[in-house]
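Subject: Interface between my chains keeps coming out wrong

I've been trying for a while to get a sensible model of this assembly. When I model each chain on its own everything looks fine, but I need the whole thing in one frame so I can look at the contacts. Pasting all components below, labels as-is. Any help appreciated, I'm running out of ideas.
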Amino acid sequence: MSKISLIVQREYLTRVRKKSFIIMSVLGPILFAALMVLPAVLANLEDKEVKTVAVIDESMILTSYSGGKAETTIPETEYLKFVALQDVELESLKENFSSTGYYAVLFIPSNIINSERALLYSDKQPSLDVSNHIRNALEGEIENLKLVANDIENLDEILREIETSIRVSSIKWTKDGESMESNTGVVMGIGYGAGLMIYMFIFIYGAMVMRGVIEEKTSRIVEVIVSSVKPFQLMMGKIIGVGLVALTQFLVWIVLTGILVAGSSVVFGDTLQQQDPTEQVAGSELFAEQDAVPLQANQPGEGDQILSDIFTTFESVHFGKLAAAFVFYFLFGFLMYASLFAMVGSAVDNETEVQQFMLPITIPLILGIVLMPNVMNNPEGPLAFWFSIIPLTSPVIMMVRMPFEVPAWEMALSAGLLVLTIFGAVWLAGKIYRTGILMYGKKVTYKELWKWLRYNN
Amino acid sequence: MDLLTATDVVKDFQAHRALDKVSVSVPEGSIFGLLGPNGAGKTTLIRIINQITAPDTGTVTLKGRPLSREDIYRIGYLPEERGLYKKMKVGEHAIYLARLKGISSNDARKKLKYWFEKFEIGDWWNKKIEELSKGMQQKIQFITTVIHEPELLIFDEPFSGFDPINVNLLKKEILKLRDDGATIIFSTHNMSSVEELCDHITLINDSRTILEGEVNQIRNKFSSDIISVGFEGDPSALEKGLDRKFEILTIKENGIGKEARIKLASDAKQNELITALAGLTDIKSYNEVLPSMNDIFIQVVESASPKNKKAS
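Reply #2:
Try treating it as a single job with all components included. I did that and got this:
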């Protein structure tokens, strides 16, 4: 077995067997799955409590009488009920409000058409949902009244005729003429996720390479090793070994997250369906037909729609190409940054000294993250173009652009420059590394590094 | 025959010349001491021999031809700055280092077993390195240095961190390695171990060679014509009776008897001293005092240093 593969093997195995690696591998997907599933679960948990709002309607606009009993015409929902109160003073309600059990008291003044203002009293801040619901009801009723006041013939008919509901479906033209539905939000999400992932892994595992180099230096093992292998082999072995650890971690996360999300959607999906059998029908209809009945917000069906959007969008952005680009930028971006991290590690005696050399490495990485929103808003703009070509930021920025279809020549240029830069970075790191690893107890400056570069060794 | 020779090696670091035309010849099958004060350039020379750094000018040859990369990997090198991966297990670590030296996993296991038993550390196999004391770790390092049975061994300060018992154990092993045919380069400040172990030495000071040769010849060369005489009788008889050619340096009395240290003038003969002493006192013992390597080291380095400072 060649020496470099021996080193790769050791670097890989010692890290993969660590408790922290195993914990991270298990904890990561749980966190991811929680991030994906929790909002949906929480959305379903909230507002299960029935709220009753008392209505004092002095204007009588939203009150109808049936059998001498007043009823409010504000539409109710499953969790929001309205009760019309007659001959009740607001002041008396105020005094024993907490004993009435009402969520809030809606006061509609007699001059509401002119004042355009109703009052909602409560001992807590009423939720936005409730006040929006009331506002919509009042607006609709008063608009109707005003329309009626204009005395238009066949008003009901006209209104029915003009009622429209529009849904914008974006269709992308592809070379083979096929058109598929894509959702800009989902495309952005994919790009953002991929870019963030690359950033995260470069940072975490680049720093791991650096710590490994520092560990070899401080434990003084390095001179023992370089009497058996070339310093360059030791450096590359470490970078490749840690890179494989990163890849392993990533794959474990993907697989476990997939299992967890699938598993939890089965579990929570069941409970949703038990609560409301009609939802199930609405959901499956949605998968079959996009322009199904318009849905009210905060119904679980919305989640299914997003899911179906994600699936169709994944198809439309050529998942294979995206995955290939991700692996390419992930590995080569890591290779470039890891060699720079190794270089920093070799130049210092302990981790507290790394700050001065870390800055030039971390700035382009962080710049990539900072620019991500701008690039997503204008993926063809000059900012997006240049930073996806410049090798230090291209792994992050190009991944953000990828789902928006990048011209082939730009891809080739970006990838080519990245590979060239890697050769440069590895050469530079190798030069610094072989001098640095044998330097102890010296305060290293940039000037010093420059001298090491020109050493003949 | 010389196994390894370095010729006119020069190495500059920034403003500082680490080695200035240093040459060494290491005879095959000998223990060669590379001596010198801190910062003299010993470690730099060793690193050049190991091709960890390259010389600016000068050549290093093994058996008359330039060293190849494979030759380097055959060398057993125990550096002065040495350590182990703290989180690894002892056995695993030793196998890893052995495999880097080109031994198969199975061979490494067998050989390590032999050495672990010899050093009575067999039960350390599954311990983590960080659980071992510094001296224990040094034993592992020694074993992994010799595991591939190299014909050239380089030990840089091998005894630092060892207790006297383990120093003796190590000395025994080093001598045994030489007797088995290995050539050993041995760098140290510890002069008493030089007298015990080394056949040849080169003394480097301030980047230059200032003394080289066989240890016995050097000690004879530095003999300062001082005689130690054990005697019985009245010390004042000696002081009064001896010729001016024989200068009495000290007279000591201890439990066993009396000892006088006498320096011979350059024209004096030892036989004359013996005759004179025989007439004055009862001689119990008589021997020439050879300077210790420690004395020679200090004498040579101190006399060399001021000159060098003036020159530079």
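Reply #3:
Confirming on my end. Chain A touches chain B at residues 1, 3, 6-7, 10, 14, 215-216, 219-221, 223-229, 231, 438, 440, 451, 456-457 (CB under 8 Å).
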